[in-house]
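Before relying on records like the one below, remember that each one covers exactly one chain. Contacts with other chains, cofactors or solvent are not represented anywhere in the record.
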Amino acid sequence: MLQVEHLFYEVIEEGRKRTIVNDVSFQVQDGEMLVVTGPNGGGKTTIGRLLIGIEKASSGRIHMDGADLTDLDIEDRAKAGIGFAFQQPPRFKGMTVERLLALAAGRELPEEECCHLLSGVGLCAREYLKREVDATLSGGEMKRIEIATVLAKPHKICIFDEPEAGIDLWSFSMLIKQFEQIHREKQESLILISHQERIIRMADRIMVVQDGRIRELGTQQEIAPVLFGAEGEYQEEFACMSGNGGFI
């Protein structure tokens, strides 16, 4: 179980302190799918970056299975069982997709297993295994490859930052099937940061983040009607939260 307690993240801008994440507390149970949503710039991605250790919290604690991860770096948090997929995946000139998958898995992978991982995110393995992870790949291709690297190794909890960004509808459908399978088999916990309605409706629980705070947190049955229902209190307010005309 992941437990986040009173998490704050503050920065200094033009000599003034700005609070990006403001007293955020929540839990993710083993095997649970939590979807984090809310307006752009509300702090969703920052919360994910604090969990994996890319950013260091100003205060608060992060525990997983009773172990305190708060002061651990990215590598040690990964060893503890946290996986993370970026909204904008990094590129590695000179490294092949096949080698990247092996590094992510922490072992050499047979070609058949690499093919299975790539096909699971909508890529033809024979076309990609020997390609370099560089600027010749599109943003959508990079996104799918990174998701495959996260799936290459079992984790206690996986964090996906807007996994729908930059991929076509066919690949998105395959990605949804991957999430559904992980969730159905309860292999690991999932935190999905997303505006996508289909992903939000998959959740066990939904957390709405706005202005650095948790505005709503509850089951899918409790929160989805607030976001999408005809009588939802925040429906009009969140109609443009994705930045491209609403929930996509």
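The longest helix spans residues 169-185.
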